Amino acid sequence: MDRHDSEPRQGWPAIIEEQGLIYWKTPLPDGEEIAYWHEGAHYSLTSDEVYDIEAVARLMLEMLVEAGDYIIEENLFAKLGIPGWAVPRIKETWESEPPMLYGRFDFAYGHDGVPRLLEYNADTPTGLLETAAVQWYWAKDVFGEGVDQWNLLHEMLVGRWRELAQNGRLPGERLHMLHTSAEQSGEDFMTIGYLAETARAANLMSELVAIESLGHVEGEGFVDLAGQPVRTAFKLYPWEWMVREDFGTQALEHMGDGPGQTVWIEPIWKMLWSNKGILPVLHRLFPENPHVLPAYFDGEQPDSLTSFVRKPLLAREGANTTAVIDGKVVEEGPDQDYGEEGFVVQEYTDLGDYGGGARPVLGVWTVDVEPAGLGIRESDGLLTTNTSRFVPHVIS
Amino acid sequence: MKRSKSVNLVVVPLLAAAFLSGCGNEEKETAYCVDQENKVTDNENCDRGNNSSFFWFFGAAGLGRGSFAPAGDRINSTDKAALAKRGGFGSSARSGGIGRPTGRTIGGGGFSGGG
Lengths: 396, 115
Prior knowledge:
The complex is a heterodimer. By secondary structure, chain A is of the alpha+beta class. Chain A has 10 helices and 21 strands. Helix content of chain A is 28%, strand content 25%. Chain A has a 5-stranded antiparallel sheet. In chain A, strands 13-17-14-15-16 form a 5-stranded antiparallel sheet. In chain A, β9 and β10 form a beta hairpin. In chain A, α2 (47-74) packs across α10 (278-285) and α5 packs across α6 (187-201). The model of chain A has no long low-confidence stretch (mean pLDDT 94). In chain B, a hairpin with a 5-residue loop joins β1 (28-34) and β2. Chain B has one domain (26-106). Chains A and B meet through α4, α5, α6, β8 and β9 of A and α1, α3, β5 and β6 of B. β9 (215-217) of chain A pairs antiparallel with β5 of chain B.
């Protein structure tokens, strides 16, 4: 994989905003703004590299199934900070397999060419629209129709909705697509809007609803603002928050595809895979696997581990994450009060400097259980945080 | 070829424009329980859901008990949609006896839920 300088398209901000990327400016604490979308550079991968990474993602999905079984058998829920009242539904849905849609692996891809798993965002992954649509249009605009890119994400999402609908697994007259109105940049709203677009392409009706406006009628279940039952809900709102909020009890009690019940996408068992506690579990099960970094629940790491990244079980975008090299703290992510449930410690791995200090993380998207495409974010530091940039790619 | 054949965006540009035009920054709507004269009363009059002389009125935050809501949309408190308990997800700030956040924004550009 290589990084190249590119000439940005004339008028690119208007182009990407029209395509839904209205949240491309990231405000910094000092009031400045930086561009989250960066088309002044791009990455190129060979087909062989893509096939390699794809094979690793497939293997990871199989390993994750074993890791999920292990958490349940060994009853590690408390270690993962998962509250006891959510456990019965997690176990039940792990077996019954209600519909799931997507996820995103984050891989380090240093100069030795070995993808190493940093984490799996299985419940509420973002960066979707820029991967599936914005970089797709960028590639066509810059390189022409014949260009290739690892990006079947749009097609596979549409296909997945269609398959679920044909198999009768999406009850109700329409999908309720839940975003949170607390998110002001538009990222949440547009991610949900884009997913509604993929559902539309599969001939499904959907409605965008703020999760704050969701109603519950005793004996009848969840309803939208018009009082219509919410039978299938896609939510961009993490389960670990939902189970602790007022409606958490109702969501757990009335989960399912019957009348008065709601099918939730992603399903609640994704709390197992999206939790950083999955990393020490994978290491415990597959200690020799080159794609799994040594990782431990905080406090269980050997003294010999002096270069590591300490992450909260449940944080996003590098929040409350610390990078330690040779025993010294070299970088800390923004403090957003995560970490109450505990931390994991993962051996430090070099993301690789691909030019000018740019360190990429490969976001490998999965639809159902198939690898679907690639979105690359790069940082100037060691941690990937909310000040990282999205940089498009092509297959050379 | 590992690239989608087509990525047709129809809804996304409309939503992006709606959000940028201010849908995301607008004032949050509050639901008030009003009587037949539009006078703001305690939520519990409406919460009981069995008295058709109380209504939910939707408007901007800031009205106190006994003040009059301006003319506007109101929903009978016996209506099922109005009866639903709301705000159980997503909202950490919740007000007490007078009014409650609905999760909607005022003038949300025609999309349910607004931005």
